[in-house]
Write a structure and sequence with these properties.
By secondary structure, the chain is mostly helical. It is built from 13 helices and no strands. Keywords: Signal, Transcription, Transcription regulation.
Length: 233
Amino acid sequence: MNAIVILSLSFLLSDPLSMATTKPNKASSDGVIVSISAISDGLELPARVKDHANEIFKEVEKYNIGKERKERNVLFAACIYIACRYSDKTRSMGEISVVANEAPIPDITKAIGFIAEKLNMDKNWLISIKAVDFIKRFCSKLGLDSEAVKAAQEAAVAYDNITDSSRSHVSVAARIVYAIARLSYEKKLLKDLSEGTGIAETTIKGTYKDLNLSTITPRWFAKPWDLKNLGRP
């Protein structure tokens, strides 16, 4: 009971796709129930991720969990999060929370733990996201070429290996992608990245000093003098 309050009540739903929805990118003041389909649409997820999330939900539903509107939204958010992880389409809990009627992140975390335990999943892997998990998506948003994507991925892996920074992994990923884009011939404005990733310009700027670009940027992609001339965003 104490481990996860939101999963303590009997479940009253039959199909998560048939439930009432609100605009997926905007929280509702009356606590209306969202759906796996609405959350998936709001996050622009492929159909296979939505289908996997529904499969997870159906398995968890057997445990008679959830009842209140908020509880259901949290459970749907957790199913989406897990499906994204297994499909290599990682989304942060913050991103998912926004389109799940502001489902509380601590509750989503607890729900993920419950599902992982019941369905024999690796909870540590599920919640241990890295900056590199967001790189491919952010590069795609900006239309970067394969060489830039590879450089950004290597930089993100290097960053994750050398630092235990408390910075959000999603904001670190955004800043790495921006730095790589500025180093390449595909120059991108800070505004482009902010709009493409949903990360505020001030957040991206604030992450800059923690990157240690001279250490994490692959030498085959940029030389020391290129990094010196890069400056601040």
